Amino acid sequence: MLPYGRQSISEDDISAVVEILRGDWLTTGPAVAALESEISRLSGGHRAVTATSGTAALHMAYAAAGIGPGDEVVATPMTFIATTAAASMLGARVRFADVEEDTGLIDPSAVAAQLSDRTKVIAAVDYAGHPADYDALQSLADSVGALTLDDAAHSIGGSYRGRPVGDLADMTTFSFFPTKNLTTGEGGAFVAKDPVLAQRAHEFHYIGLVRDPDRFRITTEGPWHQEVHEFGLNYRLPDIASALGLSQLQRLEAFKRRRAEITARYNAALSDVDGVRIPTQRDDVDPVWHLYPLRVEGGRRREVFDKMRAAGIGVQVNYMPVYWHPVYTEQGYKRGMCPNAESFYAEELSLPIFPGLSDAQVDDVIDTLLTAMR
């Protein structure tokens, strides 16, 4: 089965990990700091804090923002549930805003309709690797004193209006899962423009430990002393994973180019095919295509999915609207809330896309799709 996504591991990646295993630091060492420095460089110079997963990074973001009971988070439903799960677990009410009909990205006009004096965060997702409209979203957030959050699990290395992902929102989170644009095995990162938010996220991911003597509330102990002011969790990414991430970052531009080539090949072959719609790209965005989200019209998505899987092409569907999950329906969320998102989901089919995919394999995917559409 040809997968829809997979990691790209080189001999240099393997050597980088082996070097750590032969050294003194398996975790909390120099490779972690080096990876955070490189992510910061890619993200406009803002402080980066690594994490054990993209989900952990999202939890860090909501915790850093002080989300709690009585607060509201406006979020897109066209995403994996991790985007909103931590906010819900912290006690916030999630208000889902519909997406643009063509891109599947959160629609600023729909966000505006969901804002209230309880809104603390507007959470966007750079679906498929295409950044959302952050100028509009930031203006809306500023109007109610909220923060913007870019769930950039799909989009590291991309840009919007000349600015890199990581510099688009108040807070940004990345995922380094194997199918993403680069991997640390499992892993993620948090980036914040405000150093106070970044420090809060750092302490939260480090079990809440405070190590700054100027902030100690207990001043009678020795140089070993550290203390906890707010509860945190151990979301630290180890040096082993960080070394893999550092090695992968050296090929991020090559990964981006290959994903663009595959996308262009699909677009050229499928743009005039009846019954399908190719992905939309805005003129002011330079995406990193994590997914190739084809739209299969006429109610045929399941039929085409089954035929392609039977032919050995591992297509996928991304994503069921978040509020359809039982954990949300049991809280009273209803189908029909976000019609564009539901229509998008009903048609979406992710074709294989990853750097190791050959042109011949891309052509095989295309031929199999055309046969399935007949």
Automatic annotation (TrEMBL):
The modification N6-(pyridoxal phosphate)lysine is found at K180. It comes from the Bacteria. Keywords: Pyridoxal phosphate. The keyword Signal does not apply. The active site is at K180 (proton acceptor). InterPro entries: DegT/StrS_aminotransferase, PyrdxlP-dep_Trfase, PyrdxlP-dep_Trfase_major, PyrdxlP-dep_Trfase_small. GO terms for biological process: polysaccharide biosynthetic process. Pfam families: DegT_DnrJ_EryC1 (PF01041). Its cofactor is pyridoxal 5'-phosphate. GO terms for molecular function: pyridoxal phosphate binding; transaminase activity. Gene3D superfamilies: Aspartate Aminotransferase, domain 1, Type I PLP-dependent aspartate aminotransferase-like (Major domain). PANTHER family: DTDP-4-AMINO-4,6-DIDEOXYGALACTOSE TRANSAMINASE (PTHR30244:SF34), TRANSAMINASE (PTHR30244). Belongs to the DegT/DnrJ/EryC1 family. This is dTDP-4-amino-4,6-dideoxygalactose transaminase. It comes from Leucobacter aridicollis.
